[in-house]
Amino acid sequence: MSDIDDLLAADAERRQAMVEGDADKLAVFLADTLTWTHSSGKTDSRTSFLDVMRAGTTVYHSLDVRDTAVRQFGNIFILEGVVFGDVTKDGVDKKLVNRFLTVWEQTTAGGFQLQAWQSTGLA
Questions:
Q1: What CATH code would you report for 3-121?
Q2: What pTM did the predictor assign?
């Protein structure tokens, strides 16, 4: 497998952890310096994003990515595409259709850490 294949596998595992509501599994993929900017413009840190996951106020039922492209710059990877999902936020069901851009860092151990997430709603 290539580094890009490994990155795509890590991103799939991250999304699966979110759907499973497994904040501990998700934490493995999130850098300490993470910034997660939602389509609403709200930005979470690693800690605040994991707190939301643990609180259960946002529940991801499905997350599917399409139209992805990856660019590699040494140990930094830019992954972008469109995410489709079903989510319940504060008791309200929502459909996600967001264009996203992520910044991943490949660690010296060969794993990947998500440094940044930015999304914009399309629908």
A1: 3.10.450.50
A2: 0.94
